[in-house]
Write a structure and sequence with these properties.
With 170 residues, the protein is mainly alpha-helical. Helices cover 88% and strands 0% of the residues. It is elongated.
Length: 170
């Protein structure tokens, strides 16, 4: 049953990278199954280790339970409480997942800053587009006004021409 599960995982992972288990040679299939079993074994070991780390977390609650001293006694004794808190800090520094959490927090802060800059940029671009649209409408209005003025100029020129011709004829 576990072999079928590993084989399903192998097929899925191969598919994710653009390969198909069935298209591999028999030799490659055998190798990939061995590799898959080893990776599965290591992942299980890693999961077990992380589980062990989380179960051994240092806190006033967990320590008080383990040593048989009430939490109230520890909280009421500043030396005991600070000693455990310091150990908790040191313990947390050595946990790989906490380090990656810190890295992720830093990346999140950087990502948020980038997103904020991109939002500001997009707002600025949208404002510029609105301004461009407004200016293009003004250009069209000015072109229409110019066209009307040209037509009015032609009309007035014709009127002037007619008046001038009438004066000449009289």
């Amino acid at each position: 049953m576990e072999q079928d599960n590993i084989l399903d995982i192998i097929k899925s992972e191969l598919s994710n990278i653009g390969y198909f288990y069935e298209e591999l040679s028999l030799n490659q299939q055998e190798h990939i199954r061995k590799i898959g079993r080893e990776i599965s074994k290591r992942l299980m070991s890693q999961k077990s280790a992380l589980n062990q780390i989380s179960q051994n977390k240092i806190s006033i609650s967990s320590i008080s339970e383990s040593v048989g001293i009430s939490r109230k006694t520890i909280y009421n004794n500043r030396v005991l409480a600070e000693y455990i808190k310091e150990a908790e800090i040191q313990y947390s520094k050595n946990i790989p997942t906490n380090k990656s959490d810190e890295n992720m927090k830093e990346q999140l802060i950087i990502s948020r800053e980038i997103i904020n800059k991109m939002v500001k940029r997009d707002i600025n671009l949208e404002n510029k587009r609105i301004e461009i649209d407004s200016l293009q409408k003004q250009i069209v209005a000015y072109k229409n006004e110019i066209q009307n003025l040209i037509e009015r100029n032609i009309e007035l020129s014709n009127e002037l021409k007619n008046v001038t011709q009438l004066k000449i004829l009289k």
